[in-house]
Amino acid sequence: MKDEFHEWNVANKRFRLIGTVAFAEKAWNAAKESKWVSVEDEMPEGEGDVLCHFNDGCIETFSVENMHDSLTVGKYYITHWQPLPEKPKR
Known about the structure:
By secondary structure, this protein is of the alpha+beta class. It has helices at 21-33, 64-69; strands at 4-10, 13-19, 37-38, 49-54, 59-63, 72-73, 76-83. The N and C termini lie close together (10 Å). It has one domain (4-83). The strands form two sheets. Strands 3, 4, 5, 6 and 7 form a five-stranded antiparallel sheet that branches. A two-stranded antiparallel sheet has the order 1-2.
């Protein structure tokens, strides 16, 4: 399946994900249901990507390696993170 860009606006908050529709929906549901970890409390370990919440309300995937270098992207900064959900089974 081809990756696509998806964006939702809910209660004046912007959510963006890149991936298949099924993966984007699963990530969206995981973001609503799971607990976010504050970057002030704990940073993710290992390699790969995590789901990140930015100070403007945007939710995007972000590289763990890049998070350890900087929590800012332009004028925005990461406030919370959580592991990505499993990818859909084909």
